[in-house]
Design a protein that fits this description.
five-stranded mixed beta sheet, Beta-Lactamase, rod-shaped, 3 domains, about 450 residues, Helix Hairpins, 10 helices
């Protein structure tokens, strides 16, 4: 096909409509905006715009070709009023970039005008097509947006003649508005696809989350059942060991006494671990309710100090109590002792020398316990996980410090059950401070009051 060149025609225009160009431009813009609001896809914008704008510019029929980044061929994506006999083939129509009015307009990013196909001998190849389809003049305009060419829109006119400045301005406006509107529609379509993908992803994540919750529930139920089943025979082992240690089952030697004490100590540590595991799973399942009693806030601290073992010989324990009378605390004393015992045991484990300090005070209706040590401290990156169950600052197989990773998780869980919280402040190499804040009067909903 012969390359189309720009030809300057005579005066007059076959596309001239109303004399007031401003009104025509306004109508064109209105129709394109209407196409944008009506369309569901970017291609629909072109189709609706062609159907509404072509009569305004006086075109007999029109077409839109879009650039395909993977090919030099531009497929036809929208057509207006093409001859009925050609419509079955519209889906297969393509033009090559740089060839024909539409190809040159897109490739060279300029308007291509052909005032009369039959007036230029170089357009002989087009004359047969023009005769068959019934057009004489062509205007092809590039569709440009955001520094790129989307394609070309081409209008075909039945009458020949040059195009006035008013017509050129109107056609340029139409092309620019169509490109901008179609680009916005494409962005909306892309956003719609992204939203649809996000909905699918959210649904998938929700399903995975529900599966994880179910797996966690099954795990917690399994741990609770196993812990309960282990607790009963282990208690019996401790009982029988005590009987043997006291000589009630017959005389034992001093070496046997030592062995029995070791067996009993190991069994008691194992029983404590099982109790912690059982308490934690009950907390997570919501099966735990506070048993409320009235007591002096100093009492849980004193009991935790007496019952918590493991303080190194080089570590001094300092207990700080107010000299003034403290108001009575209404809470679950056993759980407060458990919280403070876990924090003390943690301080003992990670403090080789220096001191561990525990104190109590009442401020603004809340009881504040502070456990402070001069131990190894906790790095910033580890502080975020220190209260997670089964997690330790060093979880490797070669870690220096043992433990199940349940103590701090259980302590925070119990503190929250009682309406409080545990905060941590620590500097690696300098020590740690755990602050427990509990209400003086625990919420009574769901709590059990102990008879006095």
């Amino acid at each position: 096909m012969t390359s189309i060149r720009t030809v300057n025609g005579a005066s007059g225009s076959t596309a001239q409509g109303a004399s007031d160009s401003a009104v025509r431009e306004l109508m064109a813009v209105r129709e394109i905006v209407h196409a944008f609001l009506t369309a569901d896809r970017p291609q629909d914008v072109y189709q609706f715009a062609l159907e509404r704008v072509s009569p305004l510019v006086g075109a007999h029929f029109a077409s839109v070709y879009l650039v395909d980044g993977a090919s030099e061929l531009m497929p036809l994506v929208a057509a207006y009023n093409w001859p009925e006999r050609l419509r079955p083939f519209l889906g297969e129509m393509k033009v090559r970039l740089g060839f024909g009015p539409s190809g040159e307009a897109a490739s060279e990013r300029r308007v291509i005008e052909v005032p009369d196909v039959f007036a230029d001998p170089s357009l002989e190849d087009w004359q047969e097509v023009a005769t068959e389809m019934g057009f004489r003049a062509i205007v092809a305009l590039p569709l440009q947006a955001a520094n790129k060419t989307l394609g070309a829109v081409t209008f075909y006119f039945t009458s020949s003649g040059g195009f006035t400045g008013e017509t050129r301005s109107l056609l340029r406006l139409v092309a620019d508005q169509m490109a901008a509107t179609a680009e916005k529609a494409a962005l909306i379509e892309e956003l719609r696809r992204a939203n649809a993908a996000l909905v699918d992803t959210n649904a998938e994540l929700e399903g995975q989350y529900l599966q994880a919750l179910e797996a966690r529930r099954v795990k917690d139920e399994f741990l609770a059942n196993v812990s309960h089943e282990l607790r009963t025979p282990l208690t019996a082992v401790i009982g029988y060991t005590s009987i043997m240690e006291e000589g009630l089952a017959g005389p034992v030697t001093s070496e046997q006494q030592t062995t029995l004490r070791q067996v009993k100590g190991a069994s008691e540590r194992l029983l404590e671990l099982i109790d912690n595991l059982l308490d934690l799973t009950q907390l997570k399942r919501g099966d735990t309710t506070p048993t409320v009693d009235h007591f002096d806030p100093r009492e849980p601290m004193q009991e935790a100090v007496l019952t918590t073992v493991g303080r190194p010989a080089n570590v001094e324990l300092k207990v700080v109590e107010p000299d003034v009378l403290l108001p009575q605390m209404r809470s679950d004393k056993r759980k407060v002792v458990k919280i403070l015992g876990s924090l003390l045991a943690n301080a003992y484990k990670f403090t080789h020398k220096g001191e561990v300090r525990i104190s109590v005070d009442v401020r603004n209706g809340r009881v504040v316990y502070v456990v402070q040590d001069t131990g190894i401290g906790i790095p910033i990156e580890t502080q975020a996980i220190i209260f997670d169950e089964f997690r330790q600052g060093d979880g490797s197989m070669t870690r220096r410090y043992g433990g199940s990773g349940l103590g701090l998780a259980l302590a925070r869980g119990m503190a929250r059950l009682l309406g409080g919280e545990i905060d941590l402040a620590s500097i690696a190499g300098e020590g740690s401070t755990f602050t427990v804040e509990l209400p003086l009067d625990v919420e009574t909903r769901g709590a059990v009051s102990r008879a006095r």
